[in-house]
Amino acid sequence: MQTVLVTGAAGTIGNYVVGLAEAAGHRVIASDLHPNGIAMPVRGAVRPGDIRDRAFLDKLVEGVDHVIHTAALLDVGTPPETLAAVNTDAVVALYDAAARAGAKRFVHVSSAMVYGLGQRGPLTESARVLARGPHGRSKLQAEHALMERAAKGGPDWTVLRAAPVYGRRGRHFAASLLVVGPVLRLLSPVLPRMRGGPLATFVHAEDVARALVFVLDKDAARQQVFNVADDDRLTLGDRVTETFRAYGLPTWPAGELPRSVLDRIGRSFEVEAAHQTLDRSLLAAWKLVVMRHGLKPALRARLDREAVTLLHDDLVVDAGRLRALGWRPRFPSFVDGWRQVLRWYQAERWVPRYV
Q: In the chain, fewer beta carbons within 10 Å around the N or the C end?
């Protein structure tokens, strides 16, 4: 029986990994900053702690054969140096600790947001990388550091670049779609149903977790980068409309989303004063939704600058290489997965119910 360390075990992806790794026959060491929210492994242990603490890392990796690293700082509003400390420096330190412990594999979750803007068509792993902001930069730097470290000796690595992830417990990126309908509902009982806009693929957190466990014992995945995404290439308008439908909100056909207008809106966020004004306005509107519906203040409605690039730029991620190895998503359809996730948010009272 191999022992697998799962970091970020209380998170959107890591929570799934714990159960899937156990189902695959592994002994699991589950770790997160705090023990709250970590599912206790049947065979294994929980080791909470801060991966930025170098003294903690050697204790964390003791007896570990493989590492699946999902822990990350996702709030792109965090100062760049803080993002780098968690998403780059701590990854390198964890890899070094795993090497000292004799671990064989190190599987790391990166982001498709490392792909540069302005690229049309499905993005393969060979597409141009140019991070879209501090968060993407911290992820890309971690990839490069792992490759450099492994070249000098250490565990074999595998990197998964995930399309925008949605799933239970998620608070960032795709979760911002859940805010749009309730905020607009403050202004009108019937919402505009838009079509068109940039194309993108997303991915369910469980499918990322399945991919992480899947590549763990694949020789062909050693020292390789793989994209992970679902099969749905939907426009921004389609995703917003499907969210309205999942809520059960009435809509009226409002036509096509003009790419030129979306581009100007997206570019306007590059101006600091405009971004701060809109961000504060959205936050105030969401606080009103929370009070009106008696919700938990779990979601922080904000205009993340890197996520805003999806307003004006395609992000169609091609997971063909991973599928060629035999991986298949459980949720190839965004609509099916998204409705399931929304029900979880509603059950937890993170978002309103309308029907």
A: C
Distance (Å, whole) CA 128 – CA 116: 6
**What pLDDT score does 256 carry?**
85
* Average pLDDT value over all residues in the chain: 92
Is 162 within the bounds of a domain? yes
- Count CB-CB contacts under 10 A for residue 292: 12
> What range defines the domain where residue 343 resides?
173-200+233-314+331-347
Instruction: Read off the pLDDT of residues 275-324 as tens digits, 9 standing for 90 and up.
Output: 778 888 889 999 999 999 999 999 877 777 777 788 888 999 999 999 99
**What residues contact 235, with CB distance under 8 A and at least 6 apart?**
195, 196, 197, 198, 199, 200, 257
Asked whether 307 and 239 are in contact (CB, 8 A), the reply is no
Tokens coding 84: 């780098």
- Residue of 167, 168, 211 lying closest to 324 (CA atoms): 211
Choose the final residue of a domain: 228, 244, 268: 228
Q: Is residue 143 part of a domain?
A: yes
DSSP E strands in 248-331: the ranges are 251-256
99 contact partners, CB below 8 Å, separation of at least 6: 149, 153, 154, 155
Which of 185, 211, 228 is the C-terminal boundary of a domain? Answer: 228
| Burial of residue 265 (number of CB atoms within 10 Å: 0-12, 13-18, 19+) | middle
Structural domains of the chain, count: 2
**Domain contains 321:** no
- Same structural domain, 219 and 237: no
Considering the domain architecture, whether residues 12 and 133 belong to the same structural domain is answered as yes
The residue whose two tokens read 């929304």 is 342
Query: Do 66 and 181 sit in the same domain of this protein?
Result: no
- The answer to the question of residue 213 being in a domain is yes
Measured between alpha carbons, how far is residue 306 from residues 45, 76, 159, 221, 312 in Å?
36, 7, 21, 29, 11
Regions of the chain where pLDDT drops below 70? 270
Query: How far apart, in Å, are the Cα atoms of 302 and each of 234, 314, 351?
Result: 22, 21, 15
For 119, the 3-state DSSP assignment is: coil
Q: Which helix (H) or strand (E) holds 128?
A: none
